[in-house]
Write a structure and sequence with these properties.
Blueprint: H1 13-24, H2 33-46, H3 54-57, H4 60-77, H5 80-85, H6 95-106
Length: 107
């Protein structure tokens, strides 16, 4: 799968909230779900081998879940051939998932 144009936002709690809100409202979002997932994965990877401050550490399970659920969603919906050949830039996951992740982050 070819990566999308990256979202250029800092890896902060505020950015996570903005990105998840975009995912919850894809019609008004400047970013695709694929871009959001890739941003969440890059954020998570920044803290893969280091200890993060607690405010960041709390976000990591949500960021991981976004990326994991994307992979599972696509794997359940498409054949392995399609997974290798499609770009998925217009694919959307259920927006309720993004609402749930947003609620979790805002707790």
């Amino acid at each position: 799968m070819v990566p999308s144009k990256p979202i250029e936002l800092p890896f902060t709690r505020e950015s996570v909230i903005h990105v998840l809100a975009y995912g919850a409202n894809p019609e008004a979002s400047p970013y695709s779900h694929k871009q959001i997932v890739e941003w969440c994965d890059r954020f998570w990877c920044q803290y893969l081998d280091i200890d993060a401050e607690s405010s960041i550490e709390e976000l990591l399970p949500v960021l991981t879940d976004v990326e994991t659920q994307w992979d599972l969603y696509l794997a359940c919906k498409y054949s392995s051939e399609e997974l290798c050949s499609k770009s998925f830039k217009s694919e959307t996951m259920p927006v309720q998932w993004f609402r749930d992740w947003l609620n979790e982050v805002e707790k």
